[in-house]
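Collaboration report, partner site 2.

Our partner group contributed sequences for two proteins of shared interest, and the home lab folded both. The records are reproduced in the order in which they were received, starting with the first partner submission.
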Amino acid sequence: MSAYPPPPPGNPFPPNPREAWKSQQRVLKDQRRAMKYQARLQRAQWRMQRRAMRRRSIVGPLVLLLLGILFLLVQAGRISWGRLIDWYGRWWPLVLIAAGMVLLLEWAIDHSRHDDQGNPAPGRVLGAGVVLLLMFMAAVGISLRFSDAGLEWKNHLIGPGWAGLAEAVGDEHDSDSSIDRDVAPGGTLLIRSPHGDVTVTGSSDDGQIHITTHKHVWAWQDSDAQTRERELEPVLSGSDLHLTITIASVNSGQADVSIEVPRTMAVTVEANRGAVNVTDLQSPVEITANHGNVDLGDLAGSVALHMNHDDSSLSAHDIAGSLRLEGHAGDITLTDVGGPVALQGDFFGTTHAERLRSDFHFTTSRTQFEVQRIDGTLEISSGSSGDLEGHEILGPVVLKTRNRNITLERVQGSVSITNRNGDVNITQAPPLASVQVDNSHGSVNVGVAEGAGFSLSATTRHGDLENDFDLPLTTAGDQKTLTGAVSGGGPAITLTTTDGDVTVRKTSVDPLEPPAPVRPAAPPAPPRAPSSPATPALPAPRAPKAPLAPAHMPVGGVSF
């Protein structure tokens, strides 16, 4: 049996050019990868060499040196912690600016130097610890600044009591001073106070004004406190007839001023922050209070007020002249005012009035209210649904408002009311006058004296009609109407509402009493005092007639 010969040595197939090309490409790729790795190692080695040749920046040592010097000054008593905190909270960006300038200078020096091979010298580096230290110092500075700004914001919002870090953590220092100054009779006084309470009384009877100043300052050092106390001393300018008292605005300081003036001196007060109290004067008074309460009493002249803070309150009692208030205020209390009263602005508290003997005008963005006289009380509440209640009021009454429940008891005179989203309740006092109520989304209830004659026209939509006078009711769809004459007719009573009931009822109410003439007669009494000095100037033959004056004085008093 024959056998096959063995295969020849080597690859029996011819070589494949594609496989050879792939093998060659793999070899070249491995060579390139090895070259890149070698280049990377060389660059890393070069960086390490350059990094080893770099020098540290001097910013870190300078910052530590600055902190050490500041702490040494504090420990040595050269500066206080409060002054240091106040300074750093205001000027902390200078630390970053100085560090940046040092780094920029080092960069310029390094780039101007070259090594032996002609390459630029390695630059300086800023360590991570120094960077963290600078970031911490910046954070502390921002915190101090914002805390100080927060206290100033409280000062602006709350009023007196906050003046920055010095007042929050500094020591309080108090001192008093007094000034006396001659003034001309019948002169004027202007008081300018940026921060502090102002009290003016007409108790001076020696022809002078007496100024007492109580100073409050907050500081970390006694020297700073003394400087601020000197700055708070009142400065007097002008003449004896027109005098001005000015108090400087001092950071972390306020001055409470009490001034005694002659009763005939006209007073003007301009107070930025602080309460104002004025009493016992005969001449006109004008007050501007931006942040503070106002208290007035026993004033015979007119009063003009400008208030500009929603939480500031006004209290005025025993005012013989007129009173006018403009601006913004909170609670308002008026008692025994003889002249016209006008309140115009936005008032965010409760307005309470008692015994106003002349016209009363109340004007806000929501309410317009006018009456001729208030013998009893009037209260106007604030809020979205504040009520208006009045007792013993003399008309004509004109009221235009919204979102209020209105109650007027024992009203004499004509009444005209426009309202919506609230009930209206009126009780008329004899003699009966016209009543007109235009309401919506609320009921109307009117009480009329039994036996009075009037002509009634009442209409409601989506409500009921009730009356105690047996008038016929007319219904047309959802509208009900009540018309007719009672006791032969008389003043017109017109009542209109929607989504509410209308009620006309009988009442038994006494008429209002006439006002007592005591308060209007009070202002003429003080002017007689200046006339006494003029009596000696009369000719001598008139001297025997002097005893007759007291006998005829009651007659003269009645003529006024």
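Second partner submission, folded after the first:
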Amino acid sequence: MDIHTPPTPESIRRRPGRDRRPARRRLRPAIALAILGLTLTASAAPAASTRIVAWGEGTSSKLGLGVNTASVLTPSALSGADEATETALQAATSVAVGAVKTYVVTPTGVYAAGSNLLNASGGGLGLGAAAGSGNQTAFTLVPGTTGVTKVAAGTDATLALRADGTVLAWGNNTSGLAGQAPGTKVYDPTPIPGLDHVTAIAAGFQNGLALKENGTVWAWGAKETLGVTPLAAAASAVPAQVALPDGLTATAIATGYDHDLVLLSDGTVASWGKNGNGGLGDGTTTPHYNALRTTALGNDSPIVALSAGGTSNSGASVALRQDGRFYGWGRNTAGQLGLGNGSANVSVPTLSPSTKAFTEISTGRVATFGLAADGQVWAWGSNAAGQLANGTVDAPAATETPTRVGKLNHVPWLATGATGSQQILPTGFVLQSGSSETAFYEQQLGTTSRAHRVTLSPFGDSSTIKRVRITTGGSAFQIVGIGDDSADLPITLPSQQVTNVWVRFTPSTLGEQTGTLEVTTDSEIVNVPLTGVGTPLTGGPKGDPGDKGDKGEDGAAGPAGPAGPAGPAGPAGKNGVVSFVTKKATTKVKRGRTATLAFTLKNGTTGRLARTTATATVPAALKATGRRSVLVNGLTAGASRTVRVTLKIGRKAAPGTRTVKVRIPWGATSIVTTTKVQVTR
């Protein structure tokens, strides 16, 4: 189940008397989706960007990749159904995964993919009664979720925490997890009555937990997980406070399939619910339904976060220590507890022999993911759906040893979800093409453009480019070189080193044409979109007079040849020009502040300009960070658009005025304009 620590540093990451605790240690339920955050050096010039990648179980189209598949074996980049969705996904702040669904939380709302069927195995996506029960194959916005900061993807229903501390829910609601009378289907995000001042949420199969600002824990849903003894007579849709041991408060919560965990304010762990494989950690496999402490977890290092997963009456639990090591107990059929004991279940908290230091752990149905301090991602447990992201499902079929996932790097957080077998997260590896000239604007039919470059560079580990090809676009786009010296493949690029793929455009039809440049590396496939516009072939000028006739081989010189006929008149040419000018000659900004440079792009021609990329050249003296390349959408004839380049000026930038150049490729040439940035103290 999704396990979330409270969102404020004091209430989540510190317990009384434990102020030395590190800033980030979180345990989360496991799922395989990943967001790739790429940042390149200033000399390379590509823009910083975010990509979301996904891998693992892909049934019900829950990975949002447009396909319903048993497994996705390597991290694959997600894309939105439209440009607005694509932009929103790039700003993702968290991801929640469930058995048949996935949610991406963004500042503009929650986006969902997967099964929209309302039953005990799915719970729907919150898209409304009219949305139908089919699979949502691409991420789409869930109405009414603006202001949501976290999502917990329970199986029977979904919970969503809002910034004001209230909770929304939707789903099948068999046992009241959606906060309405059990059995009442909830199609749209609906507030749960009585829940306020909430800082963290968690959801399991049919059980929900909420942690409030005052450290109290509230439970509702299935009767086994209400935290009361004797066992409640029925499920409840009304959140009720759980009595914690010795009147203590809680600092973190987690839910498994049908058991719950709480990190108490004294650093111990309490649990309740079903206990088939020892997931409650009390040394037995007997259930108990009130909050009781687990077996002691040792005093070597404080516990800072919890995660839980598993299946029916077969829970798995993990506790992360401040020093980055972890305990596991409960279901271990695929080695998902990482204990070095094969697949044996354990009923008491057991320290993993792994010495890898993790800052977050997310355990799910049969696999666990760990985020290391250096931003690398590790996985252990079942590989039946490609959870290890190594391109297979049987090499190995499972492992109890944390194994690095591909070359993912600089990952800020993990996706959460106790019943999921997929993962989605942000990472710094993958090839970047932010400063590339992927838009060719206009080119006359049958003529060939100059070579445009697609810039590739890995931010994290080195990358070996094995194959480069055009996969869509027919013969309109042609690869004419790789690297500065038309190097042969494979090419190995160290971290942040840049190479270029050179592409030409030869349109055969009028109008906008698109293509895809596919780059295959030793750990991923990157698809770079290409665009261009085919325009009519213009006629030539009036023909020149004919040349003087050639001398016969043996005869006398022939007379001058007659004048050649006039060439046919060409069609009307395009009028006007494309202009690109700054809106403000000089922008003043203090050191450490952000400068927004605005420019006006106007299409003065009678044709449409295709999408392109504006690239800024920034003086090193500004010590600036931010996007140096900005995607510029297509522009119809006569239209204009504001292009903005945002730069964060370094705190150590020297005062003074510097010139920033911004370039936009158009046709066979480029337009360059300049503006000045004046740095003050």
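Feedback sent to the partner group on the second submission included the following. Helices lie at 9-13, 83-90. The CA atoms of residues 541 and 567 lie 6 Å apart.
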